[in-house]
Design goal:
It is a single chain. The chain is of the alpha+beta class and 314 residues long. It has a single domain, classed as 2,3-Dihydroxybiphenyl 1,2-Dioxygenase, domain 1, CATH 3.10.180. It contains six helices and 18 strands. Strands 17-10-11-12-9-13-16-15-14-18 form a ten-stranded mixed β-sheet. It is globular and about 70 Å long. It starts with a strand and ends with a helix. The protein binds fe (ii) ion (FE2).
Length: 314
């Protein structure tokens, strides 16, 4: 099945104005869809759709009250939708919408939508580095950082779900939608990618009690670790609360920085994730601090040596 990756995640929130401000400050571009709905887009058009939780235009809520309402996946073409419809309609209702998209509910009750992807192909340079022994990536006089440098989320990377029944949650995506396990954090769950996406993961799962089912976090890819750091630093300075990071994960090798959000889940900047093909053999490690990151750093105020009482200690 030619599934490309997540196009959009839909939330029904308590604080619509706070969510809109959060998503705009995070670096996403807000587009008003109708009287009550806003889409916040990364540079390639993927993103987050927010409405107030009482908005009747939203898909039904989970029993847990988690604010996640729907995961929207993009596929390559109409043929992929036909293939998904044929498979999923074997044992449940699949709604074909006027625009050709499909809607159905997975084995745990998560609302899903599959559509011909809205993501635009990006043509942007990756972050460039200079290293002895390799040709310089930045030309003479081309600077690595500046106060005005852009650091915008490029694309929606992955969705992480709290699930009470791991096998049920994961097997649906593997057996019915052709997702592939790249690695497993034992005690939490597997990392999955769709067959047509070479990112280490577009989904991850964490086992939780029934009452917690929902979205744990969503993540957006940045252009590299410096963009991630610059965006995160700017976000902290706007008053947002860091939850975890900055750091670099082991599985996936992606840099990460997670922030608390009014969407009822964390929202993450990530960068430089591993790519995989079908020759990859999934690794396993027990979840814990060692497996969860290669290193973990903590934001602090800017500082200069000799610059006052704190400087004198260094
Ligand atoms: Fe993540």
């Amino acid at each position: 099945m030619n599934i490309i990756g997540p196009d959009c995640v839909v939330f029904g929130v308590d604080d619509l104005e706070g969510s809109k401000t959060f998503l705009a400050d995070f670096g996403l571009k807000g587009v008003q869809l109708d009287d009550t709905g806003w889409l916040f887009q990364a540079l390639d058009g993927t993103g987050v759709l927010v409405r107030h939780r009482s908005d009747p235009k939203l898909p039904p809520a989970l029993d847990t009250g988690n604010m996640l309402r729907q995961q929207i996946y993009g596929v390559a073409d109409a043929a992929a939708l036909t293939e998904i419809e044929a498979e999923i309609s074997k044992d449940r209702r699949v709604t074909r919408l006027a625009d050709g998209a499909l809607e159905f509910v997975d084995d745990l009750g998560f609302q899903l939508r599959f559509q011909v992807t809205i993501r635009r192909e990006l043509d942007m340079p990756a972050e460039k580095i200079n290293a002895p022994g390799a040709p310089a990536q930045r030309a003479a006089n081309e600077l690595g950082v500046s106060d005005t440098m852009a650091a915008a989320p490029r694309t929606l990377s992955h969705v992480v779900l709290f699930v009470p029944d791991m096998d049920k949650a994961v097997n649906f995506f593997i057996d019915r939608l052709g997702f592939i396990v790249t690695d497993v954090l034992k005690g939490a769950g597997p990392f999955l990618r769709p067959a047509s996406n070479d990112d280490h993961h577009t989904m991850f799962f964490i086992r939780t009690p029934n009452y917690m089912q929902g979205c744990e976090h969503i993540a957006f890819h940045m252009g590299g670790p410096t963009e991630l750091m610059v965006a995160g630093d700017r976000f902290v300075r706007k008053g947002y609360q860091s939850f975890w990071g900055p750091g670099r994960h082991k599985f996936g090798s992606n840099w990460f920085w997670y922030f608390n959000s009014p969407l009822g889940c964390r929202v993450e900047y990530d960068a430089d994730m591993d790519k995989h093909d079908n020759s990859w053999v999934a690794r396993e490690a027990p979840i814990g601090p060692e497996a969860s990151q290669m290193f973990l750093l903590q934001w602090r105020e800017k500082w200069a040596p000799g610059g006052g009482p704190e400087g004198a200690r260094h």
